[in-house]
Amino acid sequence: MRLDILRQRFEMLPKHERRKVQTELSYTGLYNATIDGSYGPSTERALISGARFLADNSRNQIRIDLTGAPGVNEYITGLASGRYAAWLYGEGDECDGC
Predict the structure, then answer these.
(1) How many Å apart are CA 52 and CA 72, to the nearest integer?
(2) Domain interval for residue 82
């Protein structure tokens, strides 16, 4: 896992998109701090937990690679665009108690 790339990519987003990422993670209960668009320990933990959550909840249909820039970029932009919303908090054929 490359935390430096995770931080860099998050901070490259415009502030409103950084807030959107935090909001997406907060809907799942993974991010419980102030939604301010700032990268800190809570954002980092939520991003890492979110990648695991997506894999678990999608039964590994979604696999986030946090070891390099391409995977991190796809993950961060996916969160900002709402691409993972169905798997985070909506109906995405997620594992409900399996």
Answers:
(1) 13
(2) 3-86
